[in-house]
Structure formats: C-alpha cells, structure tokens
Design a protein that fits this description.
It is built from no helices and 23 strands. It has 297 residues and is an all-beta fold. The chain has two domains: 70 residues, Carboxypeptidase-like, regulatory domain (Immunoglobulin-like, Sandwich), CATH 2.60.40; 187 residues. The strands form six sheets. Strands 9, 11, 12, 13, 15, 20 and 21 form a seven-stranded antiparallel sheet that branches. The radius of gyration is 20 Å and the shape is globular.
C-alpha cells in the first residue's frame, strides 16, 4: 500500500501567502518556566497536515489563516489555538498519576519472561509525508499474564533510509470509549534507530508498568523534524521520476484480522478498520504497527 501524503522562530507570526495557505512560524513554551518545549505534536485541526516542534521548541507549518492548530505532548495539556495566535504557544503541565509499584528482588532462576503482540519483521511500511501520525496498538489483558505482570521491553520493528533517525514511543491508558487515553509515563521516550530494517528493543523496566485489566496502548509517533527529513524518490505508472520530502524512520506494518490499531491525526484519534480496497494478502485486513511487548515477573 502506498501513502503519498505530502506534508527560525520569529517574534511575530510570519504569514507568506501560498495558494491560499500561509507559512506559520512559532515556538512552543512551558507556561510557567517559559522554557522551549521540544517534540510537541502539532496538527491542523481536523486536517491531514502537521509537524513537530524542533529541539529548541520552534515549528513551521503551512496552514490556512482561518484554521486552528492542535498542540499535544507528553506531560502537557492539549491546546488548540488559531493560526494567527501561534507565534508563541504556552502549554500547561498535565498531572499524570503514576501508580506506586512494589518491586521485590528475585533470583535469576525465578525470572520468567514472555513476548506478546505477534508482530514480525516484514518488508512493508508506510511513509508519513509531513504528517506526525501516532499509530497505537492495543494490548488486551489476559489472565495468563498474572505470572509475568510487568512490562520489561517494547519491541518495535522499523525501516529507515537515514542514520540515527528518531521516533517517540508513547504509552497510553485506555479511555472509557476504548480509544487511547492519557499518557502513562511523564516523560518523552525518544528512540534513535540505525539505517535499514531493525528490531529495536526499548527498556521500559524503570517505569514499573503492567497491563491493566482494560488493556494498554503502545504507540509509534513520527517526528517531523529536520534531522529526520530525507527525499523519497519513486517512479509513477508512466515511469516518470518523482520525489517528495518525507521523514524517517517508519514503523513496519503487519496485516492482521483484529481491529486493535488506532491513529492520531488532525488532533483526534481514529480507529483503523478492515479495508476491502487493499490488494492481495492485505485485502480485508487491518494494517497494524509491528510492536511487541516483553512481560516479566
């Protein structure tokens, strides 16, 4: 399946007309400290285009002057602002309640581990264009997990055309409607990946997480930042050479039967459902991010 979606801070928002759109330049800051906030997820509300704030908090996005921008990030309350007011965006800290977990020492012979998720490395992924999607995979609770209740690792299969590309790992509680809800950790988990197809093992043991009875979501967030940017080249059906800017890395995708995948786009979550428009072995399946978990006692 092909996805060809194309997506310096100034004190004042700079508006440069371009086919009805404007170049919005701004910076995201903490409302109390005034410090820049890196890697905030930014979307045109209900749109297909977004970006990510850079390490210094600055961002740039093409947007209609009449539109709103939605800002979300780990540890901060979501905020919607008009593009005309986006020169300086102040975000308030969110209160994340972290459960206390009692950890006891174990002998090496007593340690048990299982891997869940069923994902595998295949040669299929989705290019993001200029869209900071978050693809979240649902992990339901099973009674068999009581012997290995803690999440030790997240395993994410990626493809990257460049060296040292980064993505953000997100961990969400399940909301009342069954969609991804609040973050379960209070800090960004930024992962750097090597070029090519890789199996990335992320140690989550310090967070003392377990799978609640209503399940948990693990998400892959694309980061639309300059260090991840590269030019993707391809030939169309007429063999004409084309190219566009996109961002590494991408997450490997597996075709599955269960509808356990959600995507954050335009400032909202959407459930991925089976599609009859897919061809071959993908017909009637859901494209799920290749993410597994290692559970331990």
């Amino acid at each position: 399946m092909k996805n060809l979606k194309i997506g310096s801070w100034l004190c004042l928002t700079l508006l440069v007309s371009f086919s009805g759109f404007s170049q919005i330049l701004g910076i995201v800051k903490d409302s109390l400290s005034g410090q820049p906030i890196p890697y905030i997820n930014i979307w045109i509300e209900n749109g297909n285009t977004g970006t990510t704030s850079e390490q210094d908090g600055t961002f740039s996005i093409q947007a209609d002057a009449s539109k709103n921008l939605v800002f979300t990030g780990v540890g901060y309350q979501a905020k919607t602002v008009k593009t005309a007011d986006a020169a300086i965006v102040l975000l308030k800290e969110a209160v994340i309640k972290l459960d206390e977990v009692k950890v006891t020492a174990r002998k090496p012979s007593d340690i048990k581990e299982i891997e869940i998720g069923g994902s595998e490395k295949i040669h299929h992924n989705q290019l993001c264009g200029a869209t900071p999607w978050i693809d979240a995979k649902f992990f339901p609770f099973e009674n068999t997990y009581t012997e290995t209740p803690f999440i030790k690792n997240a395993i994410i299969f990626t493809e990257s055309n460049i060296k040292d590309a980064t993505f953000k790992l997100r961990i969400f509680a399940v909301a009342e409607n069954g969609f991804p809800g609040a973050d379960l950790v209070d800090e960004d988990i930024i992962i750097s990946v090597k070029k090519g197809g890789k199996k990335n093992i992320v140690d989550l043991s310090k967070y003392h997480l377990s799978i609640p009875e209503n399940g948990i979501f693990i998400g892959f967030e694309w980061m639309i930042i300059e260090s991840n940017k590269y030019i993707y080249e391809y030939r169309d059906e007429n063999r004409k050479k084309n190219s566009f800017d996109t961002y590494a890395p991408t997450v490997v995708c597996n075709p599955v039967e269960k509808e356990h995948t959600f995507r954050f786009q335009g400032g909202k979550w959407f459930k991925n459902v089976k599609k009859s428009t897919y061809e071959g072995k993908y017909k009637g399946t859901v494209i799920e991010p290749a993410i597994n978990l290692t559970l331990t006692n």
